[in-house]
User: Fold this.
Amino acid sequence: MIDVRNPEDGFAALRARIDAIGTPVGGDRGAPGAPLTVGEWALLIEDIVENPDDSTGGIYNVATAAEDDREYDAIFVGGGASGRFGAAYLRARGGRQLIIDAWPFLGGSCPHQACVPHHLFSECARELDLARHMQGRLWFPAFDESKASILEIIDLFKQGRSLPHAVMNWQSKEQLDLEYILNARARVIDEHTVEVEGRQYRANNLVLGTGASTLYPDIPGIGQPGVFDYASLIEDLDYEPTSCVIIGGSKVALEYGSFFQATGCTTTILTRSPLMRTASMHHIDEDMRAYVIDMMVDRGITIIEGAEPLEVLVDGRAAGVRYRTAAGETVDLATDFVFVGTGERPDLKLYDALGLDIDERGFIRADSTMRTSTPSVYATGDILGSPMEMFKARKCGMTAARNIMGERYEYDYSEYPDFLHTTYEVTWCGLTEAEARHRYPNVIKLQMPPDGSDPESFPLPAAEGSMLYAFTRPILSGWFKLVIDADSRRILGAHHVGFGAKDAFQYIDYLIRRPEGWTIDDMAELSELFLNPEHFIQLSRLRAGKQQLVNL
Ligand code: KPC
Assistant:
């Protein structure tokens, strides 16, 4: 057991352990008796992650009765995005909370195996793509594939991930005043009681946010070495793959496939449904989809749609994938690296005692306040199903907290802005052109490049981050479309392939969903900070003078 809150020896024993591990980055050491610094937390977390055994026991940051003797308003089972944000909100409202997590850090899979490495890999994919495309020009050297190592990039991430982990623990304790027990498994006894390391903790409510993990297809060979998902890729890859077969067509499949291909690891995606048409992705504009897929194929990725994986072929480790084509033919594809991107499911065994309502796909059912079928039990984040995104997890946590603290607050996550990365950032919100035309009689669009132009010679949109592409091969410089109801002049949907649009779309999505909406005239009032037509401002201003709006 490690007590990081009320140590009798002023943290002397804990600091001795940390000193034995190493020196904090930048020499970031705390004074005797002072709380652990981020640098010290990082060393401790890294040591526990790298040497997992039961001797350390839980990391306790729990208030004494003298500090706070109230019953907990909520115990958050799982300290990922939903638990941490829910706990922070509840605490900020004056409540008392306890987070319990099996990992020695807060933040969940995001900083450890999921979002943070995904964004690192997507940035690498973008950089590698540019370096490969520009090689031999300007200051870009000949592209050396031997230097683009998946293993080295993963190692870079693993070397660095303890610092963000540490920030989560430090911020939650020192700035947000949260109580937590980490590195210890929770046992849910009933709807008010959780047991940790033999001690029982009671709360008025439980908030369940333990996430989900990859659902592997049940085919021979799937559990063999050489078969990875986004989590085991980080923890277990110990060789440099030369080719990859991806089973599944999820967002993860597109994102990781684009990264692998960008490093030079020739990638094939086997998918039953057409890419970007899987059930968990909605409002995908067909023109945007076509550009995204064309650009993946342009980079050398092979996409096989209608494929049914039958078996992972094994020779010591994964050596190939056997699949059935849409035409019913059986094909063997050789590879030394199989990656599974078929979607995720939660493990709900921990909650057997609660008898919760579960939906047909295996996710917990909750209402718009995040309350489950058991009134004092809330569920948040990936455990509820798609969208398995950070914003949903955090807002679910906040929603549960507000309701627990006595406010009626509902969160409908059926509509949301969305994104994925290939070597590009792909971002969209609102309606597609086809959806808009189905609902409104008079729809126009602002699009770049426009319909009918030759994208190989049309040097726009050239939005932020695409200038080198625009001046060397225009078609690579991105694509976008703004969908507008010409009668009300309101913007109905926005779709963007390029770089940097996520920032703007967080706001655009909010603006277009307001009861009063957001019009082409509002857009024309903005002050663009980049000259080219990214984020639609320039094109809106060129068209907004017209009383009868027409396409541009
Ligand atoms: C370091 C960072 O902000 C990414 S990990 C976020 C985890 S959490 O803040 O709990 O959603």
